[in-house]
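Posting here for the record, re: iron/sulfur cluster.
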Amino acid sequence: MDKIGIYVHFPFCVKKCNYCNFNSYANKNDMQLKYFQALLSEIAMYKNEKVEVDTIFIGGGTPSVMFDGAVSTVISEIRKNFKVLESAEITIEANPNSITKTKIQEWKECGVNRVSIGLQSANANTLKLLGRTHTRQDYIQAIKDVQSAGIHNVNTDCLIGLPRQKLSDVRRMLGLVTKLDCSHISVYSLILEEDTPLFHMVNSRQVKLPKEEKVLGMYNFANKFLNEKGFVRYEVSNFSKDGFECKHNLNTWKMHSYLGFGAGAHGFFNNKRYSNVETIEDYIRIINISQKPIKETEKLTKTQMYEEFVMLGLRTKFGINIKHIQEIFGIDILKKYAEKITYFKKLGFVDIENGNLFVTDEGMPVLNKIILELVT
Ligand SMILES: C[S@@+](CC[C@H](N)C(=O)[O-])C[C@H]1O[C@@H](n2cnc3c(N)ncnc32)[C@H](O)[C@@H]1O
Ligand code: SF4
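Prediction output follows.
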């Protein structure tokens, strides 16, 4: 039986952060129950798929703002309709100030074994500027509560490249996260998303973003600091202790299949990418007429599959397997891209080990250029 992942989207947030354009909504909590019921129906629509589930990712939005019992019932519904492996990794995303001891207990009892908490910044002024509703102390308490309940696979999301952020802020943030013994840390560079409040603040010069070289300095610092603390960068933005890599994301990057449930969720199944309708209202309406809420489906061509495979693979420390590419796509990359690979290798930007071509630490700042050269 094919192994797949499942992604479930909860699009509710207490407040919309100033930088975020994910499919998430504040002030729609009165729709939680109807959304939850629709989600259960959508999951049941896929019950005939003969697959085994090895990862579940409950993401958002903020799944931890859902009413008590919602997450465990959704996981039960998944178990009722699919064979979930005993060893499955089950992750939930949470915000520091919506995690309660009751919720943690519920998650633990229904098999959640990985919690991903969004800190973003440990600086009180920056948290305020970002429109976050929690404090540094809320984060510390949340991590401690999760760990004392016996969940030790814990991720923290951090942001770099923030307005007014200094290298010393990054040092303090990562110092805090590593002191609290997280097993996984994501360090994302801020993307200034159009039409977010932060976008307007930057455009009207109310705040300034650090220059590109400064952000690169923060990123290199994070890599060095986390390495010294026993973390390995296994993907551009993801660092983990040995054995704590996020299996769900690794599978996605390896282009394994996954089903996505919920408003705006994406899936990749039978070599087709699909995405669901985005608004909560449309999602509920379509499910209530017993249809799948799919907005778009795209069957990937072999070329598109190759491009995605190279792009996603080169973002990871494992890189791309040369023999594997020959077998799947019939492309001998060492021959087709001989000149470019030799050039990047000479500069120390890529290397080959055990039949895998990968981007080195030195090559990371020019990763996108390397990817582009190997897909055109
Ligand atoms: C969609 S959020 C869900 C998690 C949770 N609601 C939270 O805020 O912590 C997942 C992660 O995406 C990252 N993110 C959101 N907007 C971003 C942006 N504009 N640029 C870079 N990363 C972003 C944040 O680090 C966040 O933790
Ligand atoms: S960053 Fe998280 S909490 Fe903030 S709006 Fe986006 S999804 Fe919601």
